[in-house]
Design a protein that fits this description.
Layout: E1 2-7, H1 10-25, E2 29-34, H2 45-50, E3 58-59, H3 67-85, E4 89-93, H4 97-107, E5 112-116, H5 128-139, E6 142-145, H6 148-156, E7 164-166, H7 170-180, E8 196-199, H8 203-206, H9 209-223, E9 228-231, H10 234-242, H11 246-250, E10 254-256, H12 261-269, E11 273-276, H13 280-288, E12 292-294, H14 303-306, E13 310-312, H15 317-328, H16 345-355
Helix pairs in contact: 1-7, 1-16, 3-4, 4-5
Bound molecules: uridine-diphosphate-N-acetylglucosamine (UD1).
Length: about 350
């Protein structure tokens, strides 16, 4: 079988790496397309090194733009590759604009389309990712889910059970691989003995100056309880600079450049607490049993709340400070094992694809 695999943005790389390793192990042919949605060394190349992914066979170089422009650029540059390579399957992961754009092209052509991390829903259509998820799942020919809730969401939306597979969380395959094969040099970042990690990049949290001001007040109070380190996303960096807020923020937390995959996992696993608006980090903290406060109003990863270390706190200062105190006093919940989050997801996905 012949596969064309797609990546574009930072959270895609750890989802495609284990899949490609499994294809290679079984002798399947595949090529990799990188759309170039993320292009900085720290947002892209570093992940190829850390995850041992071969250089992409095609690089579309689309770069940043608004959603319409970015999606359109990816579509026009991706189409000739599908025609030329003519794969049996196109494999897309996650919910970024690159996932949507390449799915739309594929669905109107002869290859089959498979979506890894299908079926998750936040219920919030103001999130661009939610629109991407709904559309990609609707037009996919095979859907691989990380938990039973995702599987049920798809069934409720009228998708045939025959094309939905509960195969587990492929990111855990990468997490295990990275921790077992960590050959990264000693980090040159100096960290306090005890610290919390902050990540923030959702447009709903960082695009408006009022939200940033509110965030600053809350985070400053958290930092009085535990020092915070903040590997900053380029979007957030830009916004803080534009609003002249960067200096203010630097006064109460340690801003770091975006970190590579292995380095970030190490920083996170040694932390007392993670505050984040990321999706993937909710999963990773649950597996590493690190307490996580999600700075959003909802999550598409409810299992990390029900069975993991995650709590949804939005920007509710009282709830956040109360939670931080509990965590620092060692009174937080510990994660249970989650079925199929065991590092063997890529194997199960390729088994299914071979049998379809
Ligand atoms: C994208 C995804 C989001 C994911 C996030 C992870 C969509 C709709 N959003 O959001 O789901 O959680 O990636 O990082 O696809 N930039 C750089 N260098 C880069 C990449 C981006 O400087 O390598 C800057 C640019 O100014 C760009 C901005 O970051 O305009 C946002 O990038 P973009 O890819 O549009 O969205 P993200 O916020 O990264």
């Amino acid at each position: 079988m012949k596969f064309l695999n797609v990546v574009g943005a930072r959270p895609n790389f750890m989802k495609i790496a284990p899949f490609q390793r499994e294809l290679e192990r079984r002798g399947h042919r595949f090529e990799l397309v990188h759309t170039g949605q993320h292009y900085d060394e720290t947002m892209s190349d570093q992940f190829f090194d850390d995850l041992n992914i071969a250089q992409p066979d095609y690089h579309l170089g689309v770069g940043s733009a608004d959603h319409t422009e970015q999606t359109a650029r990816i579509m026009t540059r991706f189409e000739p590759i599908v025609d030329e390579y003519d794969p049996d399957w196109v494999i897309v992961v996650g919910d970024v604009n690159s996932t949507l754009a390449t799915s739309l092209v594929t669905a109107k052509k002869s290859p089959e389309l498979a979506h890894i991390e299908a079926g998750i829903r936040s219920g919030n259509r103001d999130m661009p990712e939610e629109i991407n998820r709904i559309v990609v799942d609707r037009i996919s020919d095979a859907l691989f889910c990380f938990d039973d809730e995702a599987r049920k969401n798809l069934i409720e939306e009228g998708i045939s059970e025959e094309v939905i597979f509960l195969t587990g969380d492929i990111m855990i395959d990468s997490l295990q691989f990275a921790l077992e094969n960590d050959q990264s040099p000693q980090s040159d970042i100096t960290l306090p003995e005890q610290y919390g990690v902050l990540t923030l990049h959702r447009p709903s949290n960082v695009d408006e100056v009022d939200t940033l001001r509110r965030a600053k007040d809350v985070l400053e109070h958290v930092s009085e309880k535990i020092p915070l380190v903040f590997p900053i996303h380029p979007r957030t960096q830009k916004r803080l600079k534009n609003h002249n807020l960067k200096e203010q923020w630097e006064k109460f937390l340690k801003i770091l450049p975006p970190l590579g995959y292995t380095e970030f996992l190490n920083v996170m696993s040694n932390s007392e607490i993670v505050l984040t608006d990321s999706g993937s980090i909710q999963q990773e903290t649950t597996v590493m049993n690190v307490p996580c406060l999600t700075l959003r109003e909802e999550t598409e990863r409810g299992i990390t709340v029900r069975r993991g270390t995650n709590k949804i706190v939005g920007w509710n200062e009282e709830l956040i400070l109360e939670s931080v105190e509990k965590i620092l006093e060692g009174e937080w919940k510990t994660a249970e094992e989650i079925p199929y989050w065991d590092g063997k997801t890529a194997e199960r996905i390729v088994d299914q694809l071979e049998s379809i």
